[in-house]
Input
Amino acid sequence: MLSALVMIGLVAGWSCRAPQAGGAKSIVVTYSVLGSIVKELVDDQAAVAVTVPNGVDPHEYQPSVKDIEAINRADLVIENGLGLESGMARALAEARRGGVRVFTATDHISVRRVGAGEGVSGGPDQATGAADPHFWTDPLAIEAVVHALVPELQESLGIDLSQQAADLGYRLDRLNYETSKTVATVPLNDRKLVTGHESMGYFADRFGFKLVGVIVPGLSPQAEVSPADLAVLQKVIEDNQVKAIFTELGTSPALAKAIGDATGVRVVELTTHALPADGSYFTFMTNLAQVICGPLRASP
Ligand SMILES: [Zn+2]
Output
C-alpha cells in the first residue's frame, strides 16, 4: 500500500515537473491581442497562454485562482501595462514580489497621452494627460514591442528569436503600409473618430485621424456618463459632420443608439479589444481599418 502511494506520488511529481524537465518554457500574456503577436513571434519555442479570455473586456477582468497559479508558475509574464489590466494589478504585483519576471509592453513604446478636448465632457476632463494603454492599434508600436522582446526572451527563457522578430517586423511594416493605403481612401476632412471610449488614439496618431469625441469619457469603457456629457458629444458630432459613431466592447448599446437617433449618424460596431475568429493580429488590424474606413468614405 505504502509503496503504491509512493509510486503514485512519484508519478504525479514527475508529471508536474515534466514540462520544465523537457525544456518547454511557459509564457503567460495578459490579454488576447498582445497574446496573438507573442504567439506569432514565439511559435513552438515556448508554450504561450493568455489570461483574459478573448472577447472579455481586459479593463474589467478579475483573474481566477487558476489564472493566478499560471502567472506564478510562468517563466515569463507579458503584460500591457498603463492600467489596462487594472483588475489583475494585484496578482501581477504579488507575482513580481515572488520573483516572477514580468515584461511590460508599454515600457517599450512611445507612450501617448490623452489630449485636451478628446474625451468630450461638459465638466473637467479627467482623462486629459493620462497615459493611453491602447498601443496595439498602431502596428509600428507593436513592432517596437516585438524587437524589445528579443533580449528579454533570450535572457529569461534562453531562446534566440532575433530572426523571427526581423521577419515579423517586416510583416508589421507591410501591415502598416496596407493600413495606410486603406486609410488613404478616406478624404482628410472625414477622418474623424467618435468611439465608445478613448481607445483609438494610437491609430489616430499613426494614420492621421482626429479624435473628436468618445461616448464614455476616459480610458476605460466603464466610467460614468452624464446627460451634460451627451449633450456636448451630440453638438461635437453635429459641428464636425461626423459620418459614423463607433461602439466597442463595453459601450452601452442603448446609449449608442440614443446618440445615433439624436444625431441621425450611423452607429457601427468596432472590434478594438478582441481577436477575430482566426486569432490573427493581422486580420484584427485589417478588419479595424476596413470597418472604420467603409462608413467614413461613404457619401452622406
Ligand atoms: Zn480600452
In short: The first strand starts at residue 26 and ends at 29.
